[in-house]
Amino acid sequence: MLNKFFSTPKKQAKVKEYEKEIDQLAYKLYGLTEEEIRIVEGTIK
Q: Structural domain of residue 33, as residue ranges?
């Protein structure tokens, strides 16, 4: 079922958009500073 969801570039782009939103909510929840966010994002790319 997940393969169907990720099957098109448009759907993949939407998933990336949701991932970014989730990341921002997590950063806010944990009170991360801009510097801490850069560190986290730098280690996962």
A: 8-44
